[in-house]
Structures are given as structure tokens and as C-alpha cells.
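Sequence in, structure out. Go.
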Amino acid sequence: MIYKPPFDRRKPDITTAAPFGRSPDGHWIVSAGDLPELPIPRRVEVTKDFIAFDGWVFPLSYVSKSLLVWLQASFLRWAKEDESERNREWIEGIAEAFENGLAGAL
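Output:
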């Protein structure tokens, strides 16, 4: 007899995976496929509880590998879109605040 799990581990859904974020329209994010390619955000908010980009909210109490990969790709893309010193410092500030918030959430 071959064991078949009650869900597909490669494609989680809301009933089998913990959400790791929320979109601006209130939908839960449970898969990296739910994450968009965001343009450089107009508003970024980092607190001890969450990080948010133009309404996309990610709690720091549960940071998934998918979220970390997405953040890294976003930061690199934003750096290429605007190579100015000001933008580089802004991205570094977000990364530092995220790191501090993440350390505070542990």
C-alpha cells in the first residue's frame, strides 16, 4: 500500500499551509506564487510586528523562506530600476529595519 498524503505538499492551499502575508485587498498569501513583482513601493512600513509594502503586509512572527527569497529579488530589482545613491541607501534602510524587526520578533 502506498501512502498518499491528504494534500499536495508542492502546492499548498489555505487549508494546508499557514498564511505568511496579506495582499492589499485582504487575501491571504500562502504560496510564493501569490507574490507579485512589485514596482518600487511608494510606502514601506517596518515595525516590530510586520513589514508592509504599499499594503502588502507580512508579519515578522512567521517569515517563510519564500518571503525571504521574494524580498531579496525585490530589493535587487529595485536597485536595478533606480541605481541612485539615494535609492541604495533607502533599500539598505529597509533591509536593516527588517533585520531589526525580525530580531525583535524572535
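Check: Residues 21-31+41-105 form one domain. The mean pLDDT is 82.
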